Amino acid sequence: MSDEPVAGPEHDDLAAGRPVGSTARYEPHPGAGPARMAAMRDAFLALADDEPPHVVLFLLRNGIGWQDAHDAAQEAFAEAWRLLDRTPERWQEVADKRAWIRAVALRAARRPPGQARRQPLADATDELPERPVPCGDPAELTVLTMDVLAALRALPPRQRQAMAFHRDGVPHEEIACHLGCTIRQVSNLIRQARAALRVSLADYISREEDRR
């Protein structure tokens, strides 16, 4: 089953490894006039200001290394910007944009070693405005202790993915779409992940309580 986003026809491009929107250019959407486009871009730039550190943290919880997580988050936002800029009606079809970006970032982070990242499109309007991902310093990961990260990485992949989406507030129905399973299966995955984490983090929880 796939972990890729399934919201909208952009899934076909992502599944085939093509730049989003390369299959076809749609006709302008009746709801995507200049005022609507300006509002969509403003909303996206607000998302790009607030979400990147959370996307990096989501990837870390999925066992991705710090630098790869940073690069994959940047790539996911660039993909989202290209989708909005080239085919805004597709971007409008994405129901949960936070979840979509996380799924694209996770796909990018899991690209086979040595496979080149997608090249920026030649059209300058396709490029994401210069907004560096504010991911801070790796030393800040002391807040998210190595014990917790190790416990998350030890989970089976689907439990880890479900838990990472859940920790970021993604609804169960959206998690089910991205994991290709039922809502009930998502609930079971999260329940199993919590039970495993309670066991593996027992010593960590005890140490934290001793510090209080």
Helix and strand run: HHHHHHHHHHH
Distance between the termini: 43 Å
Mean pLDDT: 77
Structural class: mainly alpha
What is the approximate shape? Answer: globular
Low-confidence stretches: 1-30, 119-126
Please outline the major beta sheet.
none
Helix fraction? 55-70%
Number of helices: 11
Radius of gyration using CA atoms only: 18 Å
Number of strands: 0
Strand composition percent: under 5%
Characterise the protein shown here.
There is one protein chain. Residues 1-30 and 119-126 have low confidence and may be disordered. Helix 4 (66-86) packs across helix 6. The chain is 61% helix and 0% strand. The radius of gyration is 18 Å and the shape is globular. The chain is mainly alpha-helical and 212 residues long.
Q: What's this entry about, in short?
A:
This protein has 212 residues and is mainly alpha-helical. Helix content is 61%, strand content 0%.
Attribute tags:
212 residues, mainly alpha, 11 helices
